[in-house]
Amino acid sequence: MVKLGTSVENTWCLGCGNFGILNAFKKAIVELEEKGISQKNILIASGIGCSAKIFDYLNLSGIYSLHGRDLATIEGIQFVNPNLKTITFSGDGNAMGEGLTHLLFAAKRNADVTIIMHNNGVYALTTGQYTPITERGWKGPSTPKGSVEGPFNAISLVLEAGATFVARSYTAKIQHLTDMIVQAIEHKGFSFLEVLQPCVSYNNTYKLYNDIVEELDDILKSIEEAKLYAKNKHKLFIGIFYRTEKPTFCELLYGDHNPVEKRQYRDERINKIKKILNIE
Amino acid sequence: MSLIKGGHNFSVVSTSTRWISSHYMKADLIVNLDKRSYDNHIDHLSEGGVMVYNSDIKGDMDGIGISLTSEAKKYPNPNLMLGVGAIAILGATIGVNKTELNALIKNEYSKGVKENISYANIIYDIVYPIIGGKFQLEGGSKKRPNILGNQAIALGAIAGGLDCYYAYPMTPATSILHYLAAIADDFGLAVIHPENEIAVINMAIGSTFTGARTMVGSSGGGFALMAEGISLGGIIESPVLIILSMRPGPATGVPTYTEQGDLNFALNAGHGEFLRIVASPGTIEEAFFLTAQMLDLVWKFQTPGILLTEKHLSESSMTVDINLNDTIWAEPLLHKDGEYKRYFDTEDGISPLLFPPAKEILKWNSYEHDEFGFTTEDPRWIKRMHDKRNKKFKSLENYLMKKKTVNIFGDKGPIIITYGSTVMSVLEALKYGNIEARVVQPIFLSPLPIWVLEKYKDQEVIVIEQSAIGQFANLLKENTNIQLKKVIKQYNGRPFDPIKLSKKIKDAV
Question: Closest approach of chain A CAs to the CA of B228, in angstroms?
């Protein structure tokens, strides 16, 4: 087993919720290795933002993508080699602002990828603007009078779009978070994991979350119930909101074919083209 | 206009026993299904040509009237049958016999074969006694395939090693997507139509990470949406091939017509400084081989490449002579052994590749990075990685100097420089006008093969292109000492007509 950390200097603020995600993710990779999923089959991507910095802190292969495009990037890896376990790290701004189309479509097509959405409710790396899921009235540098737009509800949206695994966790509950990451990665199909992640500099929610976060006893029974629980503002439920088994995008598109591992070589292709063109 | 069943639509067919490289608007035979077609095309009739019109339509028309509609009304869906009537008229006129005609209808019009054949035979019998065999065609010496430009691009890519194609529909590139989707299973390809062109380019870059030879295609508007991804491809060193099939712009422009107005955009797409390989095929045959060669080049040099073409090439079909054994197979430089660094700073700037799953760590990074692919802000690394990537400009030039980068047709007479599908129009115009000239066609536009073009320095040349501001002429002016005597431009959406172009060339020389 290879060391999971890197020697890159970690530049997150002291006390940042992202440390919890980094630690839980490393633990999850160890657990997955024990379950027979080799580290070399795990590929990561990230968007741009504080969350995305995790790319440099993990000794795993992958692509440090553009802001909002990481989900498309990781899908591109997965679609041509469906054997790979593919995970992307994205902030709430990254996933639901610039990247919203890709998020909804990845859920819609049940792409076999996992997105870990670090939800700190703020664009932290650009100094504290409101995001698509920030509550109305946020006073940030781009909305000094308070934001006038209401928020999306992430879980409700991805459920509506067709996600087959939807869960939420909290950075201060490392064991719970580790468990959710493992299950999200193990799930065949599109996994959406929202992680409540306090931002100590622009949106410090530790106290609030410690008061109102509550673990679900069991997986909820229906999409409707899941949406209801996801929208509860008095209690922030964590756990698996919804899980179902459905064929993945690649399975429906080409069964068990793997375009990279089963690629046809030159002679076979040339002979087939000769037939198509009816030439010798 | 983009048309499905409404409006006025037409097809032009030109044929000869020699290689013919452009269609002619002057026609020996015109078949009109309605009055509007008659009015639109009456001026296109050649001297001694035959006009066939639908005699069931009211209006003042001259020529040979055939009761196309009343005969069609004897079948279900009569309006859908008129086109088959036109095929029967063309067949009778050029000497196709009924057996050949019926086989053709069976192959090409799979719905309602019985009715179509019955109707076609009736029309054939009416027409044959009047103009049967009037323009009798000789058979060629060899059986050759007739393919669309976009089909040549698709098949060339497959022959070169294509594994994966992403595209969002956009005319005139759409038929690449359709064609590849139809044959994807036969070749084990992933052919995917995602949410938009931004997903297209980013998914494609993700796919290249696994070693999949990946291509995308669009026209100007979709290509514009890909610009940020192309820049990502530059820094991340992704071998992604982009087909840009031009139509008149700006914005939505004229979707189903042709232009060469995106040359500058292709040469400069994406922010930041990095190598973009840009090449443009002059003929449908060249499109086949050049697509495979471009796939190889992007993998060899690990940078985005653009195959620049036009609606005129993409959606024209032509009889071609292709020797498939000449196709290049895309091969990247692979890491052999020892410590792996994704961005290993080599002499030629090309870092060996490895693909997942691998025990080595493979990090591709959109931030400036060190050799391992970790993010950096260190001034020494920033400079070094710029230099590392930019070494590829020289490496590619050195590589291409040993390859064919410019086509030269003819060895005497004035020099005409042109590129892309305009080459086909120019060659046909020269033949038509019996003009002796040398046609110089740079296949590569980035890097521009100065090493070949410099032999024309200080000489006076004529440039021919389909751009209103003369982008190609300006490219030559900026990069060479060639003297431009005259720039012949056309930008009305239509490809050059060989007859009119030959006159313009005669005036210019």
Answer: 9
* A2 — pLDDT class (breaks 50, 70, 90): low
Q: Which CATH number fits domain B406-508: 2.60.40.10, 3.40.50.920, 3.40.50.970, 3.40.50.1110?
A: 3.40.50.920
- The answer to whether residue A2 is domain-embedded is no
The model's confidence at residue B143, banded by pLDDT at 50, 70 and 90, is confident
- B27-131 folds as Pyruvate-ferredoxin Oxidoreductase; domain 3 (3.40.920)
Q: Give pLDDT tens digits for B287-312.
A: 999 999 999 999 999 999 999 999 99
Start and end residues for every CATH 3.40.50.920 domain found in chain B = 406-508
Taking a C-beta distance cutoff of 8 angstroms, is the pair A97, A53 a contact?
no
List the beta bridge partners of residue B483: B460
Residues of B in contact with A84 (CB under 8 A): 210, 356-357
Within 8 A of B158 by CB-CB distance, chain A residues are 269, 273
Q: Which CATH class is domain B146-326?
A: alpha beta
The residue behind tokens 């993010």 is B375
CATH number for A110: 3.40.50.970
- What is the span of the domain harbouring residue A42? 18-277
The identity of residue B11, as a single letter, is: S
Residue B182 near chain A (CB below 8 Å) = no
**Total length of chain B:** 509
**Cβ-based neighbours of A253, under 8 Å, separated by 6 or more:** B190, B192
ipTM of the complex: 0.98
Check whether B1 has a pLDDT greater than 60. Answer: no
Per the CB < 8 Å rule, is A80 touching B145? no
Minimum CA–CA partner of B197 in chain A: A72
pTM higher than 0.90 = yes
Cα–Cα distance measured from residue A262 to residue B210, given in angstroms and rounded to the nearest whole number: 13
Distance CA A56, CA B364 (A): 11
Cβ neighbors of B49 (< 8 A, separation 6 or more) are B26, B27, B28, B29, B30
In a domain, A128, yes or no: yes
Q: Token digits for B9? A: 């639509």
Domain with CATH 3.40.920.10 in chain B: 27-131
Q: State the Cα–Cα distance between residues B261 and B218, nearest whole angstrom.
A: 15
Averaged pLDDT for residues B465-475: 98
Question: Which residues of chain A neighbour B206 with C-beta distances below 8 Å?
Answer: 45, 63, 72-79
Q: Per-residue pLDDT tens for B161-205?
A: 999 999 999 999 999 999 999 999 999 999 999 999 999 999 999
Interface of B with A in 398-457 (CB under 8 A): none
- Rounded to 10 degrees, the C-alpha dihedral B379/B382/B387/B393 comes to -150
Residue with tokens 């070094």: B384
Closest Cα in chain A to B229: A66
> Collapsing DSSP states into helix, strand and coil, what is residue B90?
helix
Does residue A11 lie within any of the structural domains? no
CB B132 within 8 A of CB B93: yes
Q: What distance, in Å, lies between the first and last C-alpha atoms of chain A? A: 53
**What is the total count of domains within chain A?**
1
Residues of chain B with CATH 3.40.50.970: 146-326
Burial class (CB in 10 A: 0-12, 13-18, 19+), A205: buried
Nearest residue to B419 via CA among B409, B434, B430, B411: B409
List residues bridging with B353 in a β-sheet.
B334
- Amino acid sitting at position B230: I
Query: Helix, strand, coil proportions of chain A in percent (round to 5)?
Result: 40, 20, 45
Work out how many CB contacts closer than 8 A connect A with B: 180
- The type of residue at A266 is R
**C-beta atoms of A61 and B322 within 8 A:** no
Q: Are B155 and A276 inside 8 Å of each other by CB?
A: yes
Question: Is the CB of residue B374 less than 8 Å away from at least one CB of chain A?
Answer: yes
